[in-house]
Amino acid sequence: MPDFSDAIRFAQDHEVPWPRDPAADPTRWGVHHDDPPPYNRLRGPVHPRGGVSGVIWLRGEEVAAWGEPDRADLTYSIAKTYLALLAGVANARGLLPDPNETIASRLPGIGFDDPHNRQVTWAHMLEQTSEWHGTCLGMPDQVEHNRRVSHDPKPPQGRKGEARVLQRPGTYWEYNDVRINQFSLALLHLFRQPLPEVFAQSVLQPIGAGRDFRWAGYDDAWVEIGGMRVQSVPGGTHWGAGVSISARDQARIGQLLLDGGRHGGQQLVPAQWIARMQQPCAVAPFYGWLTWLNREGAMFADASRESWFMVGAGGNYVWIDPKHQAVVVLRWIDSAHAPGVVSRVARALSS
């Protein structure tokens, strides 16, 4: 059995420098402070976090755990991958038969109707190449123009929030949380059911997950669907709200991805959909469908090239390694030291 003790000690020694209680020092907690005013504020609930924690699974069995692996903590943009899984569920149900279909052709009247946005497909949203332009639940997409994220090698064209010339959908990659929230809103209209319910029923419950799971929306993110008032949820916690989930449940979801969407003899998400999530985007080869790829080792040099990742701010990682049949969950790691943790885990896996 591999010895992960060195990796665990290293992780525990390098906690993210955010306060554990967001109310204790709000200016050092979260990522919204970099946004242009008046958008540099929280719009949904947040809560205190635990310390460094994580779990490691090998061949479907837990072989290491540390910290508070059963504590439901905010997981930031790992929720984006959950939206990709929900789109896969919609595909299996026949609600989204072709990801290359334009969203406007199936869902008119929700923000995809002008000549530019009519070109946007579901695949563009999944790849973050949509260049969708507009305002989603009170937030303009321009807030996220020129955003810099650590694993994107492309330099920004200007200051964050400064308008740039939009490109044709499908031709330019930009990490943009407003567009992700618009994608989530589209999925809500597609299912006509709150996305947290769909995710719990279709993914979490069948894999034995979901204890203390929450997926909250912004305080004012309510829409009417079929005569019902429903809250639309974000694909992260950039402006508050988002997914709270435990490390062990994150590992269960990672194992589902490692197993091609199948659990206990049941195909929860189509295998071909899971495979497509791991295929590189043509204009951003480090990115799949709301997942991060390591095909050239650019993300983590010591991780296998087959590895793919869910990544959230605050040092939250779910690492899926098909080469070693491993799932590794890391929570609240100082991102500057994440390569050190990954390297130590990789050495142990290869020993």
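Second entry:
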Amino acid sequence: MKRRFWCAALIAVLMVTLALSGCGQKQATPAPENKFKVAFVYVGPVGDTGWTYSHDEARKYLISKIPDVQTTIVESVPEGADAERVITQLAEQGNKLIFTTSFGYMDPTINVAKKYPDIVFMHCSGYKTAANVGTYFGRIYQARYLSGIAAGKTTKSNQIGYVAAFPIPEVVRGINAFTQGVRSVNPDAKVKVIWTNTWYDPAKEKQAGKTLLDAGADVIAQHQDTPGPQQAAEEAGKYGVGYNTDMSKLAPKAVLTSVVWNWGPYYVKIVESVKNKTWKSEQYWGPMSDGVIALAPFGPMVNDETKQLVDDAQKVIISGRWDVFTGPIKDQSGKVKVPAGQRMSDADMLSFDWFVEGVEGTLGK
């Protein structure tokens, strides 16, 4: 009987271990008892070279700055019921702080947080908070505007393609900011949008880029997690603007610049505040002046005139004297949505559900 009991126990342990490994969980640092445990939930694989990669590089930066942190990551977690299960599992494992790094984790994060009031949850790009839930994002639209200047000065066909993930306010805001930048230097240019309804699908994203190039675009921008659209541009002898990380290494002849994230210092700040018990729930939306967003270095194909235009606009944005969505701004039909001299409120920017003049495409199609 004892032998049967121990055999059954061993089988149960093995099943639990296999279940954990099946959801992509990785303990990224050793786990002595004195470690402060922090977990990260990722929507894509660490090797996506884009969104998830940028967060994981920040996690490594965190470890380098706070050595007594133990981190756990779970990759490729679908947005929905699976996310709630994974977040719950991480809470049960004793993590004191859990970062959930995709918009679709918003409701699962809130649901789990209700059950674990002593754990701090930080959700990236969402808008729902609680006593133990904060949100964080950066004003990436500011860097997108600057990249639009580079694209607008580079295009010869006045047709610029944009490979977009999902028609949520975050993505719509980025398309609009990019288009505002393009048309600030080239009022005749148009930005054509194709939706993939994916965050991470290398083949589909690259094919969307090819479709835009075949339709006459000679610059390709993107809100996707892979370099596929940039690689499509390079193969066609055209240009592009990367996203999340510097994509020039993956398409060096095409990438004008990339709109990039720098999450590391922010992660250090949050971990220190939770450890010191000074953390408070907030909705952080960091500007370019905070350093959480930036432009990657320009490629050799970008001329000095364009660099100067971008630099001048960047200085004004960082100063706070002006921001991207300052009127007059018209929608696709030509109707004035933001009067001259008026600046859009954060609430309006966070709920963008219309395209600015110069965008070709419809929401969700």
